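Subject — a protein and its fold
Encoding — discrete vocabulary of local shapes:
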Amino acid sequence: MGWKSRAKNCGHPRKLINKLTVFHALNLPKDISIKFRTYSSLGWLNVLSVAFYILKKRLGYYVWLNPPSRPLKGPFFSKRCNSVIQETTINYFSYHKVKVTSPPDWFYNPWTNKRFEKTHLHWSKVPDFMDDLGDIKAVWELSRFDWLLRLAWDFRSGEKSALEVMENWVRHWCESNPPNCGINWKCGQEASLRCLNMLAASLLIKNRYQRPYQGFLRFLEVHLERIETTLAYAKAQDNNHCISEACALYVAGNYLSLFGGTKQKQRGRKWAYLGKKLLEDAAQRLILNDGSFSQHSLTYHRMILDELSFVELFRRKNNLSKFNNRFYKKAILASEWLKHMIDIQTGDGPNIGANDGTYLFNFSGLPYRDFRPSLQLALAVFKKENANVEQQVHPLMEIFDINTSKLPITSRPESILMSHGGYACLRHSNGFAVLRLPKYRFRPAHSDALHIDIWHKGTNWTRDSGTYSYNAGEESIEYFPGTSSHSTIQFDGRDQMPRLGRFLFGSWLNPEEIVWREKQVKASYRDCYGAYHSRTVTWQSNSWEIVDEIAGFDDHAIIYWHLPQKNWYMENANLYCNDANIRVESDTDLNVDLRLMPESRYYLYKTDVPVLRVKCFKSGKVKTIFSFRD
């Protein structure tokens, strides 16, 4: 038995098809037509929201709405704030160990050794990208306050001086970052994560959670004012920004309504209501009916699951009213999605989509690429199940005293077609493969149609090169999101979808067909230039067979196979190492070579990996067989 779908049954909104028909009938130039189609896919309301946001910034509206004010004053956690350390090490992006002073320089980028100097500039006047400064996320990282949870945990574990360091650093941050001034107030999501970490830290210091200082309450209040200002822009992104900011409004708003003064209680109730409504709507819209998240990213999927888990645990702790049933249904679906997408043996998973180094609430220093703790947490919170992966315990399970020992063991992940989000996962006892279907309901971060990830006994054999950085030079920005950095086919040296901006591809692909059977999946697409690619993936006991059919290109097509670092050697068109061999067969002439290309498993970190390139000059069929030696 199998399942088959044509493009007309793959989720084309009828209104969108009508719009595209109009654009074609107008016979517009191709580049304008592509932009119109892309804006239609984004949603015209979202496009207008972003346009109004940009216009308001230029007109100075946000300066009037969120005027700069005096620095926030402590105490926040303690009346004593002596720093007992001179220098310490911070994990940037849950991977890089960077030495910082105490307190740190909140405007310094350790990768470029540059510093943001215009610290009193209103946040709306701070540029989005500054080539001399480098990646803005490297500056923002410390201001997320991930380090705060590490210090709070140290204090809870008996290191009393950690509380004074916490207070010292938070006070110094507030003195250096007056409300609405500078780079660290620029992003509503960054402000949201700061709030969530402050509240999580207060939970670790129990006497401070129930009896907050006024400085702590005022800190939350000012941040919620900033978040509320640009909610329309966050919603228009259709991504994690909306969920993060809704979580902060809900959690911090409820906290103010419980422990704030009279006016703070009133404002807190308003923000909590707004956050709850926004969160319920975002979960319903951005988590699809197969559990896929709008951002097509494993790390962002973990991020929103951790946020949803934290919000639900906070709700229970404070006996607040439940979210609607659709919220819990979508949270369960998102938890199941993560279970199907990771390698349970190692906890790692496909490096698909945007990967910005986020691992929330990770104060115990869990390995960044181990997704099992978040799976365990989400299944325990939303399904009352035990993922049976006790190697690492998610820190939120420590904060909220979650015991999974008496919960039923969750079912094993299995082969599954997730056609709403665009994934097909084939599993057997020794491994699994994930095929990225050519379907993009939301804005794609990468041009990665029909990329395949193959895993065998914990090793990722065909891979995605990742993200590396959102602002690290034109070459990296072009390469990592582009088609050649994925294990798929590139036509005529271009991306599968035309690039319209740093974070925007046009002419989003849709499948011509999807065929799903017990041990096989097939999918195909035709791009806006007429090139055609069909990929059929079949698994057997100890091998994977991938058949690519290609047509419609002008000069050449290249199949890229991004491989793990092994002692590879080539004989004829075949590739060998101690554990596996790759055989390439075709009915057309091929050029096959092996070269090194960049890969990034962690944000702002890259290395070179071997890549098998199969170059075709004519339409035809190419069969690639991956065989493993146990």
Remarks:
- The first strand starts at residue 2 and ends at 6.
- The CA atoms of residues 315 and 322 lie 8 Å apart.
- Residues 6-28 have pLDDT under 50 and may be disordered.
- The radius of gyration is 25 Å.
